[in-house]
Design a protein that fits this description.
Length: 439
């Protein structure tokens, strides 16, 4: 079983702060029967020893993984054998340096060094080799899946639109109040971005210090406000940042996260439960208004019906309205809270590409069509405080998360999800074709 590190490392980080470690209160690992180094089972003639099962069970119990430790340990080790074999058959191996880097990155998510992480495991009776093997299997499997499938999987614009829409519940759930620093990978100090991001993540700092560094280094528009952005849905942030933020305390800083515009680090200022409904302040609507002379007359409604017969989307309205004065058709994208109340009330009744002719404005019938409804806008940032550093990078209007995730961020998120689903299916196929037996 693959374990998500962000959920588990928090537990280990807390253990590192304790002077002693007790397994009391955690499910005790079940020792495999027989000699510790005897084979407990075989996966395509490759042995899995009792000792490996005991170690993996202890590892999972220490990390608080769900399920019976022994059962889940056997399952995880069987799957790791299959992952490693498939990768090796494809010529994919992890070098010692790659494994070391993987262990370091894994541990860093709990703000620990690899050595501190291994020491915490050792207090619970888990050998460093168990951690190393776990990381190696994950590394080669990730490379294998990307090599086999990354170029075959695509994400369409329609899928991105759907993922960003309110109907997909984006914007619901926990809300976070964060500050951001986006370090560009290009420009005068681009080559220093990775190192600077690590330094920001490693050093504990006050919100005032984070704001000062945001004004100095960030390329996001929020820089002028010290990196502060308003309450936003947790789902607006990169997936790599969501888990850590849920476990952090106000003032904590995330590990660096790669984003299309560079490298991001976030400081948590507050967190609250959201709910199933999206805050209207975080809904943006894209809609079209076509004004037809005649008000609520039968002639105007007949003309509207004819146009809708030829146009089943906002884009097609332009073709259907060809020949009419340009100012009769207007398309707007704005926060729902800024839409006129009567228009907002009608839009609330519509699904995307549906239309209403219930409104009359002056002597014109309003053919109102909802083009898109999204939940990617955040509350506006606080007012700027102080002047930015003269050497600060040029502001990139597309950087940062105050307006929600960019389409590229959502595209990457959907692609990773597809890769994950494909990886699960491939692993199930490997397991179905494997010879798994006990001595």
């Amino acid at each position: 079983m693959m374990i998500r590190p962000t959920r588990l490392l928090t537990r280990l980080s807390a253990l590192c702060l304790a002077t002693t470690l007790s397994l009391g209160g955690m499910p005790a690992p079940v020792m495999a029967q027989g000699s510790p180094y005897a084979a407990a089972l075989y996966v395509n003639d490759r042995a899995v020893s009792n000792y490996e099962i005991e170690q993996r069970a202890r590892f999972m119990a220490l990390l608080g993984a769900p399920g019976d430790p022994k059962v889940e340990a056997e399952k995880g080790l069987i799957e790791d054998r299959l992952r490693l074999d498939a990768a090796r058959q494809a010529g994919i191996r992890a070098t010692p340096d790659q494994i070391k880097a993987g262990m370091t990155e894994f541990a860093s998510r709990a703000n620990l060094t690899a050595e501190q992480f291994v020491a915490a495991l050792a207090q619970g009776g888990v050998e460093a080799e168990t951690f190393r093997d776990f990381v190696e299997a994950g590394l080669v499997w990730r490379e294998l899946i990307r090599a086999r499938y990354a170029e075959k999987l695509t994400v369409s614009d329609a899928e991105i639109d759907r993922a960003m829409s309110v109907t997909e519940n984006r914007g619901a759930g926990p809300q976070v109040l964060v500050s951001e620093i986006i370090l560009p990978m290009t420009g005068k100090y681009g080559h220093l971005a990775s190192r600077r991001a690590r330094e920001l993540a490693e050093g504990g700092m006050s919100q005032a210090e984070f704001a000062r560094l945001a004004r100095k280094y960030s390329s996001a528009p929020s820089r002028d406000a010290g990196g502060q952005i308003g309450w936003i849905p947790l789902t607006n942030l990169p997936t790599e940042a969501r888990g850590p933020l849920m476990q952090m305390r106000p003032g904590d800083v995330t590990q660096p996260v790669r984003v299309p515009e560079g490298i991001a680090v976030f400081q948590l200022r507050a967190l609250k439960d959201g709910g199933d409904k999206v805050d209207p302040n975080q809904i943006t609507v894209d809609y079209a208004e076509l004004l037809l002379p005649g008000g609520g007359s039968a002639e105007a409604r007949t003309e509207a019906a004819g146009i809708l017969a030829r146009a089943d989307s906002c884009d097609m309205l332009y073709t259907a309205a060809r020949g009419l004065p340009a100012n009769q058709l207007q398309r707007k994208t704005e926060a729902l809270s800024r839409v006129p109340r009567d228009v907002a009330a009608e839009l609330a009744k519509l699904d995307e590409n549906e239309a209403s002719t219930a409104l009359v404005r002056g002597n014109a019938l309003v053919l109102l069509m909802l083009c898109k409804r999204t939940a990617t806008s955040a509350l506006q940032a606080p007012a700027p405080q102080g002047a930015p550093d003269p050497e600060a990078p040029r502001i990139n209007e597309d950087a940062g998360f105050a307006k929600g995730p960019s389409r590229e961020v959502v595209r990457a998120e959907l692609l990773n999800r597809k890769l994950g689903d494909t990886a699960d299916a491939y692993l199930a196929e490997l397991k179905a074709n494997a010879l798994i037996r006990r001595p």
